Amino acid sequence: MLIAGNWKMNTNVAAATKLAADVVNRVGDQERVGVGVCPPSVSLLAVGSVLRGSSVRLGAQNMHHADHGAFTGEVAASMLRSVGCTYVILGHSERRQYFFETDEAVGAKVRQALSHNLVPIVCVGERLEERRGGSERSIVRGQLYGALEGATISVPDRLVVAYEPVWAIGTGETATPDQAQDMHAFIRELLASRFGPATAAGIQILYGGSMKAANARALLGQNDVDGGLIGGASLSGESFAAIVAAANDSQGA
Ligand code: PGA
After folding, report:
1. Ligand 1, residues 98, 167, 169, 205: which to mutate, most atoms within 8 A of Cβ?
2. Which of 94, 120, 133, 170 has the greatest count of CB atoms below 10 A from its CB?
3. 92: CA distance to ligand 1 center in Å?
4. 3-state DSSP percent of the chain in helix, strand and coil, to 5
């Protein structure tokens, strides 16, 4: 199980370190459930020092695919490594929608992250009209194969996939546990055809989209749901810790 908080463009450095300290306080001494937080990049260094010595890992929300160079405003994989990042979220639907990231661009970032020993959290997910039109599987297949183009992984824990139906992100509407399980099982099949069944079985597939304490147990109880990527509910230590507790329960079940 992995519960990762995506803080998006929220918190300044002071608020981020405070939230990180609260998360460490609440869940930083348990190791049964993997926990990560992804603050805005200006706070990575400060949050990383708060996390040091705890089991909570650091992640970034985006990066550029090049090693370095004239890319004003961008951040490279080696920079993320230098501040202690384990994870990097790639291909989030907000990046695709507002910053026009294509599957090809996401694929280049994933290869770059892997080559720098960052674990990409690759986001895929259909829009409402695509689900209504019945094309959700082909959309997710295209996004996943695009993101994994040319990618190789030695062991399953080098890669995390997050299924985030766009219609559920920040809307308060979640996929039902059955809808999530159905898509996660499909993603697992796609991963199996790409990396072989043994590797696919070990890759963590997270659900994201309005996950909170009240619905986490039912979602995390599904066979192929291996954790959550949490937006809004990760901005309070209390609600984030409640989701980690739900993950702990469903792992023990
Ligand atoms: P949400 O965001 O939990 O606020 O819906 C999830 C995400 O976008 O990663």
Report:
1. 169
2. 120
3. 10
4. 50, 15, 35
What residue owns the CA closest to ligand 1's atom 6?
A: 231
Q: What's the DSSP call for residue 156? A: G
Instruction: Give the Cα separation of 164 and 93 in Å (integer).
Output: 8
- What separation in angstroms does the CA of 200 have from each of 1, 54, 156, 220? 15, 29, 7, 18
Separation of CA 180 and ligand 1 centre (Å): 15
User: Which two structure tokens, joined as six digits, stand for 101?
Assistant: 């990231």
Q: Give the model confidence (pLDDT) of 9-33 as tens digits.
A: 999 999 999 999 999 999 988 889 9
State the average pLDDT over residues 197-203: 97
Give catalytic residues, as residue numbers.
92, 164
Q: What is the pLDDT of residue 80?
A: 98
Length of the chain: 253
Burial per residue of 142-157, b for 16 or more beta-carbon CB atoms within 10 angstroms, e otherwise: ebbebbbeebebeebe
pTM score over 0.90: yes
Phi, psi of 56 (to 5 degrees): -85, 130
